[in-house]
TrEMBL record:
Keywords: DNA-binding, Repressor, Transcription, Transcription regulation. Residues 23-91 form the HTH merR-type domain. The lineage of its organism: Bacteria, Bacillati, Actinomycetota, Actinomycetes, Mycobacteriales. This is MerR family transcriptional regulator. GO terms for molecular function: DNA binding; DNA-binding transcription factor activity. CDD domains: HTH_MerR-like_sg3. It comes from Rhodococcus rhodochrous. InterPro entries: DNA-bd_dom_put_sf (IPR009061), MerR-type_HTH_dom (IPR000551), MerR_fam (IPR047057). It comes from the Bacteria. Residues 1-20 are annotated as: Disordered.
Amino acid sequence: MVLPPVAERHHHRKVSTMPRRKDMRIGELARTTNVPVRMLRYYEEQGLITPRRLDNGYREYDSSLVARVRTIRGLLDSGIPTRIIAEMLPCLSDPRQTLVADSNPKLRALLVEQCDKMTERMTFLEQNRDALAQYIDEMDKAGGSRPEPRST
């Protein structure tokens, strides 16, 4: 029996385009996210991340937690307390599932305040970035050197 050329054969094997889930230990998650192991354990204590426990007691972290850890770190760096982050995480993971369990006016005021502070910091950072870029441009003009490409 002669088979048709490979290009003409019909393949019935399905090829998954979904990325393979990769599990990792706490050290690898720490390296991947640039968040210290101690901080990851704190996130776990606060209920912000939940690793699986293996029979030997080791924690195993799903690769999907990488984005979550980075989000948590960014929110903490922005001054938002973990108790509020815990309430916000379901909304951040899937914006279509925005559920507000506590419409407390004090909590809302705190979130508005944090949002305003973020906006102020962003404006400040943009001004500093622009000043640095201008100074670099002036250095390039003065030195006659060929400027290196910058990412903006």
